Amino acid sequence: xxxxxxxxxxxxxxxxxxxxxxxxxxxxxxxxxxxxxxxxxxxxxxxxxxxxxxxxxxxxxxxxxxxxxxxxxxxxxxxxxxxxxxxxxxxxxxxxxxxxxxxxxxxxxxxxxxxxxxxxxxxxxxxxxxxxxxxxxxxxxxxxxxxxxxxxxxxxxxxxxxxxxxxxxxxxxxxxxxxxxxxxxxxxxxxxxxxxxxxxxxxxxxxxxxxxxxxxxxxxxx
Length: 222
Prior knowledge:
Elements: H1 2-25, E1 30-41, E2 48-59, E3 62-71, E4 78-90, E5 94-106, E6 114-125, E7 130-141, E8 149-160, E9 165-176, E10 182-193, E11 196-205, E12 208-221
Antiparallel strand pairs: 1-2, 1-12, 2-3, 3-4, 4-5, 5-6, 6-7, 7-8, 8-9, 9-10, 10-11, 11-12
């Protein structure tokens, strides 16, 4: 346990120094991401399925900080996370961004579980209007209350009709110890505006379906 925290501390320290050195030696814009997400069941009583708020900054190819909070719409479970990462590869077709998060669960149903998320983002540009993205990550336990879990946050294919409207579809799922994969396919529509991007998912979930709304505002400055 102690060795895990030492590795995480050294990783974040290395990220901070590398980011500062690159900022001094190169003129890179600072890009800030404001992210909010929520979901609501279609079937009565139409309860919230989750909420998320996140703040992220990117300096050149370095991501630091990335902090946020996630809950299930009620007070007995919450996840708080913080992390850092970098864009490790950027090619003509494929881009790989890798982040590592420290996660602390709180609330009566959380049992103070702690995790590491190893969070890779694969972006694909097949054609000017045809793109794909995949995020598949493990929950690595850091204490006895935490359990091994695997998640497909999203694996989606999208087609841009124009600068403002994108249609797509994809798949998300999760698997914890002793359970089967919980598959949740979805259809998506993204509307871009000066006020940010609004992404709407119509998604099948256990027991019915849900509407997800994913909002992102991106602000760049030099």
